[in-house]
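Q: Got a minute? One more chain.
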Amino acid sequence: MSEVNESDRFECVVINVIDSLMWKGVVVEETKSGGRVYFGKVKPEGFDYVPGDVLYIGVKKLPYGVEEMTAEVSLYDPDGRKLDWTFI
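A: Always. Here it is, folded:
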């Protein structure tokens, strides 16, 4: 298995978009592995993606473990704009 670089981007498909008062919750599925990630604080301004649309994720390995989490996963739009991040 090759090492994942911070600049690598992985294609994912929007599975669900949850509207709340201040944020959008977005569930995406990485197309090759089928792994899903939930991003809970996506700003609603300019976010007009729906289930089936393509977005991208990037992974950055943490230099130390935070509880049981080992990586920071970021959500990007097709233009490379960072939309949100979470730990896994």
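A: The two ends are 19 Å apart (CA to CA).
Q: Perfect, thanks.
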